[in-house]
Amino acid sequence: MLFTEGIYNIYKPPGITTYKIVAYVKRHLKEKFKVGHGGTLDPFAEGVVVIAVGRKYTRQLHNILNNSVKEYIAYISLDKTSDTHDITGEIKHLNDITPPEEKNVKKILSNFVGEIEQLPPVYSAIKFQGERLCDKIRLKKLTYDEAIRVLKPKRVRIYSLELLEYKFPKLVLRIVCSSGTYIRSLARDIGEKLNCGGVVEKLIRTKVGDYSIENSIRLPISF
Fold first, then answer.
1. Catalytic residue among 42, 79, 96, 189, which?
2. What mean pLDDT comes out for the span 76-92?
3. SS3 letters for 178-216?
């Protein structure tokens, strides 16, 4: 497939970075165009990534990145914690947890709908002193605890939080939220309110604005 100017809804499979999607598009251009994306996905996650080709279209990415409503399906494990709040981090298994009743889970979930304040994950692309916080930790320029003190809470909006499945420790949610929402932080915070862990084991971004996973372009996975 050759790409020309326009906006493309591309499916990112798990296990690769968003930048590999961008690199693939750049290698398959009909002409030399500027290429950008409308928001990254963590390497372990999958789903919709919006790619713009051509300056006319990359100018539209700011609105997609900052103002679009996003939808996710999150598979959360409540019997463990992680320094990254997902399955790729340092996992700590929790013992002697009393499984919350489903009615209590639903009650806690309802408290997260609306405008909420959340602390971003330490392992994130948030900039501090000109570098990404996650890079500073990995390069040992900051300790994990120092990085936590650097973080500032941010306000985001959860439009809906639907319980799709619950069988402790497995919790599956459909989340519709504003740009800038960290699903990993949401999982952590839900787990804390339930006196459990909260680790995202699988994450699928099903929508970015009007772009849905059903209509996304599947690129060759060999790249």
1. 42
2. 96
3. CCCCCHHHHHHHHHHHCCCCCEEEEEEEEEECCEEHHHC
